[in-house]
């Protein structure tokens, strides 16, 4: 179905190709998982299939890519729209209409499908993707995960023969991700759809793949094989494979079920040992800094080691006049394409930029306590948060989890003063965020937003970093060093819009970390990051927590939460439904338990790091 003939892509200003020697065939009716480190060229390779590369990104494509016989260099994305459905990494760049139902129908309308067919497919898709309750909602008012589901739904309705998906589950909660993947698998099995999908969270997807396509390093030829073959050689692998390698299992397990069947001996080895809770520097053991007692009316959730061994322990292809490539890329053939980016949060971008630019103040104090009392937030007609009472203490890392639309981003945005409480109170170090001038608030709290682009305004990585150093009055080079520490190889002179997703996130993280805010908020901070980059981020965050910073991560990444969170708070429909030490909360939840915990249950292990240390 998809043929690559000696394909290479070289972006403008680059001396070496980003991808080269791509020579392979993807047969009809297979789900092929594209994997590789951050910035290696996965989106570039996907773009050669959807036609976005080079039509929207610029650069030179050599060789030939054909999809069902159509050459993607001579067919623009619009001319492939009936054949290829594409979802890029940024759902906002994807949308063409204003409401959920219109968006689901749009692709079919463009292809001229009969109204009764469109109606039926819209209804089917609303049900399949759990969108029925949102059908009339303006897309701009949806949460990040809700938007990602709409983006996926809108490419499913026209029933294209080929789906090209770039990190399609990155903003989805674990249950929604499973639902989407099983829908895709059904399309592959029942309709013979061909799916080419890039994903970093392999723990979610590897067991659904017929084959895996590995890009091992920039410019290296890709390797196609069965998932088991590729997992044996891949530099990126999920915890189940890491555990299998550690235990010497052959063949390597790909699913929790496979691993459980082999875990008997490992369990016996671990029986007399106890897992260590997370602390600084990637090691496990006693936290370096004990958190002071909470001052609010709620229970303290300082980092408390469980007493071990305890049982808890671009874009869819559509007419270019209405879409923008991420960050307003240019179609050299058709001139500048206006970026269509619905304002999800009015003034969010400007507010974040203001928050950053306001930092002419002295470096912040190391610690801050945030208190939320009976917080309620109403957004349009939706109660996004209700009766939230929480205290966030210095030295503590809290993972805020819960299904899409539960209220996580709303809570973080309230803590940085971008949303005003409807009822109740929020204070950060005694200040009320929405009434505190940005230049003062920045001393107390920093947010890495769900869309890192919202934080970036300079023309190059180097200029962003220089501005971040100046804003935070940090020594020159601080931010740049942090970028490299998180993700090596991010170029200095590239425009942030041309960075890969992981590179852009590493830049946004570094900018906020440069300010070393006492209260550090991160909204889904692992999109686009490979496992090594995530481990480095975890190290940085552990060190900050050990120095007394309070950290809150809104995340669907259960593996990250297990690695670094002392405490997990689960939101549902705007309310707190669970709050306690990580092991207590996640182990009892099939959705939020990490792979190691599922494999070794009922023993209280959460991460491969804990197992490795116990076996050492
Ligand atoms: N339009 C562009 N112009 C110049 N360089 C680009 C452009 N798009 C991507 N690049 C560069 O090409 C390289 C590969 O980027 P790409 O987005 O394909 O990587 P990726 O594997 O998808 O990364 P991630 O896992 O972070 O999403 C990166 O170094 C990136 O900076
Ligand atoms: N600007 C807005 N106007 C109206 N409703 C909104 C707006 N932004 C979000 N909402 C709604 O508020 C609720 C909470 O959204 P929020 O973005 O806080 O969820 P979330 O837990 O961060 O979700 P996700 O995991 O998908 O990012 C959702 O029902 C969402 O649809």
UniProtKB/TrEMBL annotation:
Which residue intervals make up region (Disordered)?
Answer: 269-344
Q: Where is the composition biased (Low complexity)?
A: 289-301
Superkingdom classification of source: Bacteria
Q: Name one GO molecular function term.
A: ATP binding
Q: What keywords are assigned to this protein?
A: ATP-binding, Cell membrane, Membrane, Nucleotide-binding, Translocase, Transport
Which SMART domains did the record assign? Answer: AAA
Record domain ABC transporter: where: 2-243, 370-598
Location of this chain's protein in the cell = Cell membrane
Q: Matching Gene3D superfamilies, A to Z?
A: P-loop containing nucleotide triphosphate hydrolases (3.40.50.300)
What is this entry's stated membrane topology?
Answer: Peripheral membrane protein
A Pfam family this protein belongs to? ABC_tran
Give the record's family classification.
Answer: Belongs to the ABC transporter superfamily.
Specify the protein name. ATP-binding cassette domain-containing protein
Q: Supply the source organism's classification.
A: Bacteria, Bacillati, Actinomycetota, Actinomycetes, Kitasatosporales
